[in-house]
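Field log, afternoon session.

UNIT: design team B
ACTIVITY: writing a sequence onto a fixed backbone
BACKBONE:
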């Protein structure tokens, strides 16, 4: 696989004990992001929390980082990334934070250093919009939500 350099910076020295994002396995596409919290954060059921990572990144032009949920948190606790996938643009230099939502039936506790999401580097393509009076026909046509049915 091709490697793309992503520059990363800690914001505060108070969280240097928290590991940098890392791939869990050789085949992983996402780097695990960890919570940079002093004390436990509780996300009540049905509520949102913005969780800091204490990290800033410099992404090369032509790329983005997508912040995605961790499947284990989703299936075991009902925790998801609310704006999934969240997008970090190449020109953003603020702190990476994760918008977590508790879809579960119990309050969820986040501790310092917990893996809370994953980030995936993706290539960005720019759309070149062309105004036209007609579009090519397709088999689906104007069929909307649920049009293709279930099998």
């Amino acid at each position: 696989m091709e490697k793309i350099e992503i520059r990363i910076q800690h914001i505060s020295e108070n969280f240097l004990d928290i590991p940098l994002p890392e791939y869990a396995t050789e085949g992983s596409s996402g780097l695990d992001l960890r919570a940079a919290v002093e004390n436990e954060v509780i996300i009540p059921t049905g509520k949102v929390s913005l969780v800091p990572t204490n990290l800033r990144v410099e992404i090369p032009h032509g790329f983005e980082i997508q912040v995605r949920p961790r499947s284990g948190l989703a299936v075991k606790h009902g925790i998801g990334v609310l704006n999934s996938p969240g997008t970090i643009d190449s020109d953003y230099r603020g702190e990476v934070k994760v918008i977590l939502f508790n879809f579960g039936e119990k309050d969820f506790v986040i501790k310092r250093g917990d893996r809370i999401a994953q980030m995936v580097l993706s290539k960005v393509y720019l759309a070149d919009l062309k105004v036209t009076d007609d579009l090519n026909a397709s088999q689906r046509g104007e069929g909307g939500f649920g049009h293709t049915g279930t099998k």
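LOG NOTE: The chain is about 5% helix and 35% strand.
NEXT ACTIVITY: expression trials, pending approval
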